[in-house]
Amino acid sequence: MEMDERKTKILQAIIRNYLETGEPVGSRTISKDTDLNLSSATIRNEMADLEEMGYIIQPHTSAGRIPSDKGYRFYVDTLMEAKEREVADMKDMLLERQDKLEDMLKTVVKYLAKDTQYATMITAPTTHLNKLKFIQLSRVDANHLLAVVVIEGNMIRNRMIDVTEEIDDETMLKLNMLLNTQLNGLAIEQINLSMVAKLKQQAGIHSGVIGDVIDEVIETLSEDKDLEVYTSGTNNIFKYPELADNENASRLISAFEEKEILGDIIQPGDGSEETGIQVYIGGENKNSGMQDCSVVTATYDLGDGMKGTIGIVGPRRMDYDKVVGTLKSIKTKLDDLYRKE
Amino acid sequence: MEMDERKTKILQAIIRNYLETGEPVGSRTISKDTDLNLSSATIRNEMADLEEMGYIIQPHTSAGRIPSDKGYRFYVDTLMEAKEREVADMKDMLLERQDKLEDMLKTVVKYLAKDTQYATMITAPTTHLNKLKFIQLSRVDANHLLAVVVIEGNMIRNRMIDVTEEIDDETMLKLNMLLNTQLNGLAIEQINLSMVAKLKQQAGIHSGVIGDVIDEVIETLSEDKDLEVYTSGTNNIFKYPELADNENASRLISAFEEKEILGDIIQPGDGSEETGIQVYIGGENKNSGMQDCSVVTATYDLGDGMKGTIGIVGPRRMDYDKVVGTLKSIKTKLDDLYRKE
DNA sequence: TGTTAGCACTCCTTAACATTGAGTGCTAAC
DNA sequence: GTTAGCACTCAATGTTAAGGAGTGCTAACA
User: How far apart are CA B27 and CA B37, in angstroms?
Assistant: First the structure.
């Protein structure tokens, strides 16, 4: 048996209706809702076919049908009409300050949660490909140095370094010079052990303390800010009874708190490249706690290799059109953000 | 009618039992559980008295009794035996790094959630009383300056500043000098508008750009890091049926996400000064969403005016002994942390 | 051959009702 | 003052019946 136009139309009507009401939909409803002018009996025959083909499911013998994962998948891949939606302007969210990326991400994720009424999360952009722009070591007091590093995209990292013996001005100057000439322009990823060894060697006699300082500077660089994840609207899961039972809710809340969801979910190279948007429906999720959820992710790219991911988590009967549309718009705005400048 | 020793013993037994089981406790149970050697009938008479006095409540006529807020209050104030408990060492959590206070707070709050099985939150220490230790302005590229400020307690703040016209080396040097001599040693709180005006005046001719830069530096200082709140174990609320119904859970989760709970709850100067520990039982909470919760807070003090608050949120029938004990221990460890050095 | 009306059947949902049992309050005796 | 005894209350649980939405199947129809 195979899909024809009529079956497609009926399947679409079932899904549309179910997304709206959350109730299993019966043959009579479809008979009235579509422009096919078919009796409920005919619809019933078609529905039996669709069930046999695996697109819809009957919760129990005397109930209507609900879409299966395969049905949703068909809908998302071929029937959905995701329209770009008007969304708030990222520029406004940036508050004109480049270094407070963190604040913008929080604002975005909050905005998305409010707009979609689902739970949302966003990862900070990766920076391991970014190049060093500026390194500075300053003496704060007798036994504390402050290391500040700026990388491409104007992200700042810093660290207070304890030193056991005071370092004189001349050495500080030399050290700063050394760090800048050797490391500037390199991507964080490129810095390896042999480079560090070379650096230490060049730093010369004071190897004891200076070696430690260099180690700490390097560590500051490779600090994993990439994994930073912000979430919002977790309480939205209570709006959907199928997710709101205690066990499920507890699992989800916990997953959001641990912030490990996105890492678990995203499987690079699964066709999301073209649009940057990817949909995972119910059982398609690897994460066992999320088999009853659908997740839509978008990869944004601020340029210079700074990519991050936005995730929206809702029930299977998520409003895919709206969510995908919104994410597309947000993604576009984020992508344009740095590029235009 | 007034409390006598026997009533006290019975009340204590009722509360202890209820805290353990979560079920209303009947007269027969108390008759067997206590060493009073009284029949259930006698206990019933006493219970009727205790109810009249407002310490216990009968959910319905044929049920046992549960403690009222007043009962819990009596228990917490006079019957409880909070024993200091062995807790993880903060030193280990600090990972030997002074500037990563944030990481320590996250670790503490996570540890507490795991240890107590309640939802926990912690506020970062206030810093508005702290003194400036170090200010540095550096040129990152032609139109970006980097401002870095270190305050007492070695907390670091920074900001990237856009400048429209390039600032020459000499001016930078002068500006750094000026900022350090004028502001070092001052508490953040002390810096006011007239000081800023004076600063700008002293900075001289370049007033346009320089003025903006100074404004941004000042803003960096007063950035409200104080309000930073970390939470953990929110999913623990599902362990307590009285909190886990949808409406309640949603409200609580949302309150935790907004992180406004502690601010709402803490009422300074309500007797928590002696021990730094404060207990809010059920209806005693101002926040309307938390009328079914109990909250225990502890104020920690890292010295230099850096105070913060820890909060533990659970059901009314929280294990007060354990929670208060744990908080006392944690508080002591935190208080000692910086002081000893 | 596809479509449809009709009908028996399934099974979830809801309400009504009876049963059980924990726990109480009261009374009278100790 | 304490206690045994007893009638009473009421949430919880189980049972049964009625109602209804929706199906699958059959037979008639265009």
Answer: 12
**CB A119 within 8 Å of CB A231:** yes
Q: Do B254 and A235 touch (CB under 8 A)?
A: yes
Measure Cα distances from B40 to A143, B62, B67 in Å: 71, 15, 18
Give pLDDT tens digits for A261-274: 767 666 555 555 56
Q: How far is A200 from A213, CA to CA, in rounded Å?
A: 10
What residues contact residue A312 under an 8 Å CB cut-off, 6+ apart?
A112, A116, A118, A119, A120, A295, A296, A297, A318, A323, A327
- Structural Rg of chain A based on CA atoms: 27
Mean pLDDT computed over every residue of chain B: 88
Within 8 A by CB and 6+ apart from B94, the residues are: B100, B104, B337
Q: Are B76 and B279 in contact (CB under 8 A)?
A: yes
By CA distance, what is B247's nearest residue in A? A238
Residue partners of A146: CB distance under 8 A and separation at least 6: A137, A138, A139, A140, A158, A159, A160, A161, B134, B136, B148, B150, B156
How far, in Å, CA of B220 to CA of B334, rounded?
Answer: 27
Residues in chain A with pLDDT values less than 70: 91-99, 205-207, 224-226, 262, 264-274, 339-341
**CA A161 remoteness from chain centre:** 33
A98–B162 C-beta distance less than 8 A: yes
* DSSP of B289-311: GGTTEEEEEEEEE-STT-EEEEE
Asked if residue B125 lies in contact with residue B307, where contact means CB atoms within 8 angstroms, the answer is yes
Which residue, A91, A72, A113, is CA-closest to A294? A72
| CA dist., res. A81 & res. A71, Å (int) | 16
Strands (E) across B43-143 are located at 56-57, 66-67, 119-123, 132-141
The gap between the terminal CA atoms of chain B, to the nearest Å, is 55
Distance CA A120, CA A103 (A): 15
Query: Do residues A272 and A299 touch, judged by C-beta distance below 8 A?
Result: yes
Quick check: helix, strand or coil at residue B160?
A: strand
Residues of B with CB under 8 A from a CB of A: 97-99, 133-134, 136, 138, 140-141, 144, 146, 148, 150, 154, 156, 158-160, 162, 231-235, 238, 244, 246-247, 249-251, 253-254, 257
Tokens standing for A80? 């959905």
Q: Which amino acid is located at B66 in the chain?
A: I
Distance B21 CA to D6 C1' (A): 29
Asked if A235 and B246 come within 8 Å (Cβ–Cβ), the reply is: no
CA distance A221 to A156: 10
Structure confidence by residue, pLDDT tens digits, B120-133: 999 998 888 889 99
The type of residue at B184 is N
